[in-house]
Amino acid sequence: MKPIRTITGRGVAIRRTSVDTDQIIAARHCLRTTRTGFAEHLFATWRAEPGFPVGDPAHDGATILFAGADFGSGSSREHAVWALQDYGFTVVVASRFGDIFADNAVRSGLVPAVVEDSAVGAMMDAVDADPATEVTVDLVALTIRAGGVEAPVRMSADTRQRFLDGHDGIDVTLRHEAAIRAFELAHVPIVKAP
Amino acid sequence: MSTLLDKIWDAHTVHRSGGGTDLLYVDFHLLHEGSSPQAFEGLRLAGRRVRRPDLTLATEDHVVPTRGLLGRTGVAATMVDALRRNCEEFGVALHRSGTAGQGIVHVIGPELGISQPGRIILCGDSHTSTHGAFGALAFGIGTSQVEHVLATQTAAFAKPKAMAVTLHGELPAGVSAKDVALAMIGRIGTGGAQGHVIEYRGAAVEAMSMESRLTLCNMSIEAGAKAGMIAPDAVTAEYLRGRPYAPAGRAWDEAVASWAALRSDDEAEFDRRVDIDVTTLSPFVSWGTNPSQVVELSGVVPDPSADPDPALRDAAERALTYMDLAPGTPMREIPVDVVFLGSCTNGRIEDLRAAAGLLDGHRIASGVRMLVVPGSAAVKKAAESEGLDEVFRSAGAEWRTAGCSLCVAMNDDSLAAGERCASTSNRNFEGRQGRGGRTHLVSPTTAAATALTGRLTAPSDLGALR
Ligand code: SF4
């Protein structure tokens, strides 16, 4: 994973709440054994509706997605994260995320920025009014700025550090190999399959 | 004073980072073909192995056909082949499609006795919360975490908060754990338990069978919870006794004795409490496109303009358009094309028995297609030994082999655009059962009653109709 400190780009807003991962990418498009090739299926059904912002040429090149609360609820499919990244998004901003989605995002290097609802709404207004509005997400200071609005980004210290360092989660864990082995010896005997 | 969550969490903590996450040891890791190929590929690229194959078990459920054999070509075959090759290469036990131990991952875990009190059980599937019914901490993870668990047998997480959902009283006849779950999600919303592990307690939970408890914990994720759990008791132990992975002999007695400590202390503090009086509940059904959009089956399609919350109002309006329903329509007047009985929510033997009890000796309404898909090969076998398959077939339903099937529509079982389905599964999301398909979540007995009349029907409505 590449380290991420600040991201500046244009935004696009989906003004819907509880956008579940089935809407981000339908199960029938998850039948692949790779992590790429999902972009064309991102929000596929909704993109066919007139006026849906993702895919609207006015927002071409947007890298920061704003959405209503509970974005990424539902299925644990990490394909939802891969599809967003494959399409070009590097940050998703919402006041609340589905737990598993947020964890998947962190592990795949997509920033799930938790921002208070009223600030999300104000920034949505800004990017809707002018798609060229510059949005900056700063993981060092844990802030987001867009269209004259600035708000804090909520993120645990560990998650922030992971983005700043760009470490692979497994490498971080394997630093504790001795502790894992000790735990195993004390508590986890080998299980013989019945 | 600690909660059940605290006790399991602390007993599995290998390392505390101080930065918000704890590294937890994973007692058992379940795999399926849908979320694992990229994880194994990651191991291969990094030259890593599966740390504890003995604590890992795979099955084929999401994409396998439930009619006929798995083809040799096509996307499903590619997914299944990948899993078979990966399990072989990394030494992981696999319950293949067509064998006696195969089934939906959350149905076979309990059947095999893998889901045990006090354990941490992870799986690359959101309904892993099901296994919490045994007093385990079980939750779903994504593919990157699957790779992490395969490589390290651990997972790092921030500790969730604890939420107590207490079910007071005795469930009325014809009202099931599924109805309770839908009622709860309707009350607290799809994000209502976000960041929390729900512990279900109270008289109604204690009175529930293991199957019903599994249904209840299964649906926790639909309220946004990290997991659902129920403290183990005699019902739990009775279910596990003699199962293949359950301890035996002296180890069994010791295990059962140790489970007594697995309960929240009387004075334990919960971050949130929800109380539900189940004595007044009746069968529930969803009208919208998320599992909080539910109403009593005796009710009507709600009017979104009555909702004071603009976001919820907006979501409800979208949902009604998608579902092609008008506010004020009595739920009982909504006709269905398809009835689906199955899934990790309601594909266990108790569910099939309950539905068969209503169908026995009757025919489903003409024009209705009913799929009965057992949750596992073992459930199928048990049902057949009781003659339930005959009941379903004579009623005009299709009797299938085990898999996820119409819950997720990754195999050939799907709704056509515009088709309406009464489904015992867990998600009524847009397109979940097939592009343009419309889902009404119901309990197994409501599904059976609906199949008989062709309209959404509560089991208690049947008496008057017959
Ligand atoms: S039955 Fe449905 S919810 Fe359960 S594991 Fe299969 S796809 Fe997921």
What would you note in describing this structure?
The complex is a heterodimer of chains A (194) and B (466). Chain A has 194 residues and is α/β, with parallel strands linked by helices. Chain A has helices at 21-24, 44-47, 79-87, 99-108, 117-129, 157-165, 169-174, 177-187, and strands at 6-14, 64-67, 91-94, 111-114, 134-138, 143-146, 149-152. The mean pLDDT of chain A is 96. Chain B is of the alpha/beta class. In chain B, the strands form 5 sheets. Chain B has a 5-stranded parallel β-sheet with strand order 5-4-3-6-7, covered by helices on one side. In chain B, strands 17-16-15-18-19 form a 5-stranded parallel β-sheet, covered by helices on one side. Chain B has a 4-stranded parallel β-sheet with strand order 11-10-9-12. In chain B, helix 6 runs parallel beside helix 8, helix 13 (349-359) crosses helix 15 (388-395) and helix 13 (349-359) packs parallel to helix 16 (444-453). The longest helix of chain B has 16 residues, at 75-90. The radius of gyration of chain B is 21 Å and the shape is globular. The model of chain B has no long low-confidence stretch (mean pLDDT 96). Classes of the chains: A alpha/beta (194), B alpha/beta (466). Chains A and B meet through helix 4, helix 6, helix 7 and helix 8 of A and helix 2, helix 3, helix 5, strand 8 and helix 11 of B. The complex binds iron/sulfur cluster.
* Oligomerization status of the protein chains: heterodimer
Write out the strand line-up for the largest beta sheet of chain B, numbering strands in chain order: 5-4-3-6-7
Task: Report the count of strand segments of chain B.
Answer: 19
Instruction: Give the biggest sheet of chain A.
Output: 7 strands, mixed
Strand content range of chain B: 15-25%
Low-confidence stretches of chain A: none
Q: How would you sum up the global shape of chain A?
A: globular
Pair with the most extensive interface? A-B, 58 and 73 residues
Count of helices of chain B? 17
Number of helices of chain A: 8
Gross morphology of chain B is globular
